[in-house]
Amino acid sequence: MEIDPRAVRSMYRTLSGAVVPRPIAWVSTTGEDGVDNLAPYSFFNVVSTDPPTLMFAPGDRPGGHTDTARNALDTGEFVVNVVDRAMAEAMNETSATLPGDESEFDHAGVEAVRSTRVGPPRVAASPVAFECELADFVEIGTGNVVFGEVVYVHVDDAVVTGGKVDVTKLDAVGRLAGNYYCTTADRFRMVRPD
User: Fold this and answer.
1) Which CATH number belongs to the domain containing residue 112 in this structure?
2) Pairing mode of beta strands 112-113, 25-30
């Protein structure tokens, strides 16, 4: 199969099916109206370690930005919560399209706890949560890239060995395509050459 991106209606299925697995940013924000929002984004990754910076890329909705993107722009703050296997169903439930005045925390029965440095709450059960301040917001076509500088991190001691996050203990969930997800349970090692 050969694809000319200019000749197809959408590249979504090709990109999301081939760029796998993708980590999931379960992003919590608070709107100017005080409503807490929680939504998953699989276009997500680390951008820099100094300053520590993450990015996630919410697509636009008919009529404008998603609640998450708008809240991050309006308040300048958000939290990226890491999703593990135990939280996968709740994470999926928060992907439902809800009215702007309804909280996904309440809708999915997800416990929120107060953050340390930013206003939006974090997911209580998340093994790792990154509190972020908005560093930049870039509009690209029908998508956006939200950059956040990490200003505080919460790491559950259960996923730590020797003062470091232990990937053998963090059963993180990744996004594949369609209705498929994966975990980090199937691992192998290779030593990087000099």
Assistant:
1) 2.30.110.10
2) unpaired
